[in-house]
Amino acid sequence: MASLKEVRNRIVSVNSTQQITKAMKMVSAAKLRRAQDAIHQMRPYAQKLAEMIATVSAQTEAGAENPFTEVREIKRALIIVVTSDRGLCGAFNANVGKATMALVQEKYADLNAAGNVEVLALGKKGGEYLSRRGFKVNEAHADIFTRLNFTNVREIGEVVLNAFTEKQFDVVEVLFNYSKNVATQIIQTEQLLPLVASESSEKASSVDYIFEPSEEEIISELIPKSIKLSIFRALLESNSSEHGARMTAMDKATDNAGELIKALKLEYNRSRQAAITKEILEIVGGAEALNA
């Protein structure tokens, strides 16, 4: 059994940890509110633009001839993996890493064996996770969350678009956490390039658009913008999910610390009571020995 001093020190240590986790939960709750506001403002615009572009591209000759809608034989693949820069958020980052490995195994196993699958890590944790498992990881933009704004994301979009048009990659997919609610994050996989019409856009294909100026100018301008917005939306979704996951994880850690403190206090009181009982027995035994 641990000594009274050891148990007391453990109580103090766990109490300090509980204060830290409680503070981290409060900080994450404040950041979550701001992140949710940002993505709620962004999500309808980005989704509607992507749907409209996919519909117009499928309907018009200009869309079919655009280099970003060209479907080629897949010889090289780029996977954009969005994670966080920090841990202490449960299985948030590990789930994205596992989903990436499952995607590669399912769709690009032969390409990966030949070294033709590259991972673009947005967030340090994803790059570290996958590089340890032998993936070819580009970490040039892993610090994007330290400077998260559309200007910096646009640079990443330009790199991805140029790599696709120069045929360095034949397909580009992005994986990120989508926040269903504060406590639940769902891994979402989207194909960025080549641009394909989704089911919702196919249903809306009967919409007759009036183009001003020409179709070619509009599509050549909006398709790259839509791709960059999709990357920015994935980052904002992941940022919101990260704070929700960390708040949940710190809430559970705070509760667990409270339970541990209760158990340690119970152990401390039992040890203290046993020590007092032992001392009383020694005193009584000594007194009886003197009387004898």
TrEMBL record:
Keywords: ATP synthesis, Cell membrane, CF(1), Hydrogen ion transport, Ion transport, Membrane, Transport
GO MF, one example: ATP binding
UniProt xrefs under Pfam families: ATP-synt
Membrane topology of this protein: Peripheral membrane protein
Main location: membrane
Keyword Ion transport belongs to the record: yes
GO BP terms in the entry: proton motive force-driven plasma membrane ATP synthesis
Annotated localization: Cell membrane; Membrane
Entry GO terms, CC: plasma membrane; proton-transporting ATP synthase complex
Family named by the database record: Belongs to the ATPase gamma chain family.
HAMAP family associated with the record: ATP_synth_gamma_bact
Function summary: Produces ATP from ADP in the presence of a proton gradient across the membrane. The gamma chain is believed to be important in regulating ATPase activity and the flow of protons through the CF(0) complex.
Record note on quaternary structure: F-type ATPases have 2 components, CF(1) - the catalytic core - and CF(0) - the membrane proton channel. CF(1) has five subunits: alpha(3), beta(3), gamma(1), delta(1), epsilon(1). CF(0) has three main subunits: a, b and c.
PANTHER family: ATP SYNTHASE GAMMA CHAIN, ATP SYNTHASE SUBUNIT GAMMA, MITOCHONDRIAL
Protein name in UniProt: ATP synthase gamma chain
